[in-house]
Amino acid sequence: MASETTVERLRGILEIVRLANAETDLDALLALIPRQACSLLEADRATLYLLDKGSGDLYSAVALGLPNKTIRLRPHQGVPGLVYSTGKSALLTDAYADPRFHREVDAATGYHTQQILCVPIKNRRGDTLGVLELLNKRTGDFTPEDEDALSLLASQIGIALANAQIYDGLRTSLDRLSRLMKIGAAISSQLDLDVLLRTISQTTSHLLQAERSTVFVVDPVKEELWSRVAEGLDNKEIRIPLTAGIAGLVASTGNPVRISDAYTDPRFNPEVDKKTGYQTRNILCMPMRNHRGQVIGVFQVLNKRDGEFTSLDEQLLGSLSSQAAVAVENARLYEEVQGTLIRLKTLDRMKSDFLNAISHELRTPLAPILGYTEILLAGGMGALPGNATRGIQAIAESGKRLLNLIESLLAFIRLDQGEMALKREPVTLSSLLASVVEPFRARAAERKLALSLDAPEDLPSVLADPQELTMALNHLVENAIKFTPAGGAVGLHTRRVTGADGQPGVEVAIQDTGIGIPADQHEKIFERFYQADSSLTRQYGGVGIGLALVKQSIEAHGSRVLMESAPGEGSTFRFTLPLAE
């Protein structure tokens, strides 16, 4: 049974954790942690160390008893540095007798350390955020039980500290981001450069509390800056030499300029004020760079309403000028892209027309080639010499493969142009499947594969385009045979099913015991011209459009091709067709 002291200590830890989790202000939380830890374990002093990401040092974010001093330690320096570096707690009952103790801190602060209890503070991922160090227990020495209690507290405090750090960073950025959202929305939705930059200019003036904003665009031909958008000029255009004035300086050097008193700065060109009648007091000027780093314009803001422009204003304008640069580039490129797109569409249509024409031209002479080889092999033109039969069979086989390739190209053109139009009608599935399988039996036998068909004659008719369905099945069976090693099996199976929509249908499955497909390739193999392994193209042949055509055809039927496959375990492709009414 836990002692009364242990129970009270646990209650104290829970209360500190409750207070820490309720505190979202980072400074308040940092002050709370060492104060409460001292009270819990009756320590004389406590220090909370955090990492300075800039220098890599540990620094005392809060040091009780040292309100105006900051302690800095390198990682591995002193007990806090070692605890931070190792992520393990440390308990010293005699500090000056322990080599881990860093005496210089006492020398600098005038404090005499006798005992140290130090634990790491970590976030949920186990990353060390800081170190909590207690010094000199008021009654007795720190004990292992104290170490366990402080470690437990630190493990919970770490979560609250991480949350507070995140919240503090988010709060700092939230206002800036929210003020940039309007400009970001304008840039993402507007390609008219005049309208876009006018919106940005007006929003910038409001954002930075400035009287006016001007956007200068670089004219590289005339070596000038000219204003596309300038508030208060009533559409008047300003042109100045590329190196003149503050805007010219920013354009030529690529560096931002912030001036608190324009007329006392020799870089300021008062000629613009003389032409416009405007009195410039202070200036914030930022270059606009494209993605190649070239200055394509200058973003200038004039006369802060409530004082001078600050470094935060400079950061904000830097973000805005980056977005403005994107807008300028997009506007300039928009017309070029539109023209290029039209040319590409024309070329794409020419490509499809060429493939279509050449496919038809190739198919025309193939018809008599295949016809005469069939007549010769059937003996219609007399008996063939014994050594000629094999050659003519090779011609016939190659001709059929070429014809299949041509048909695939023609189907690809339909796929590419989105011109697949189904002619659906009631189809006797058992007969259609038999007509698909039969031409493959000789090839399966030659490759020593078992080719089977499970399609009962009493299967109900389905609604499908027989030509497109036959093409899809041919590709699936051909792939199954192609990628199944000798001694394997390929089978077509059917069964009645009820779809997800409750409608009855017939499922068709093409199953093989072939080489299989890795899981990360399951979606990609349905892409045009994709091969799971480029070496497969050389080993097995094909151009990689068969499964893309299958996918398009089956989806045009209102179904979806489902696949189950794993390397060395074969593949199964299945889809469901609706019953004919």
Regarding CATH, which class of the largest domain? Alpha Beta
Give the strand line-up of the largest sheet.
3-2-1-6-5-4
CATH topology (fold) name of the largest domain: Beta-Lactamase
Poorly predicted parts: 533-538
Largest sheet: 6 strands, antiparallel
Q: CATH homologous superfamily of the largest domain, by name?
A: GAF domain
Number of domains: 3
Determine the strand fraction and express it as a percent band.
Answer: 15-25%
Please give the number of β-strands: 19
Q: What radius of gyration results from the CA coordinates?
A: 39 Å
Number of discrete helical segments: 15
Description of the structure:
This protein has 15 helices and 19 strands. Helices cover 47% and strands 20% of the residues. Residues 533-538 have low confidence and may be disordered. Helix 1 runs parallel beside helix 5, helix 6 (193-207) packs antiparallel against helix 9 and helix 11 packs across helix 13 (466-482). Strand 7 and strand 8 form a beta hairpin. It has a 6-stranded antiparallel β-sheet, with helices on both faces. It has helices at 4-22, 26-41, 78-86, 104-109, 144-189, 193-207, 245-253, 271-276, 311-378, 389-417, 429-437, 441-446, 466-482, 534-540, 546-556, and strands spanning 43-51, 58-63, 72-73, 90-92, 116-122, 128-137, 210-219, 224-230, 239-241, 257-259, 283-289, 295-304, 425-427, 450-454, 462-464, 489-498, 504-512, 562-565, 571-578. With 581 residues, it is of the alpha+beta class. The chain has 3 domains: 4-170, GAF domain (Beta-Lactamase), CATH 3.30.450.40; 189-332, 2-Layer Sandwich (Beta-Lactamase); 420-578, Heat Shock Protein 90.
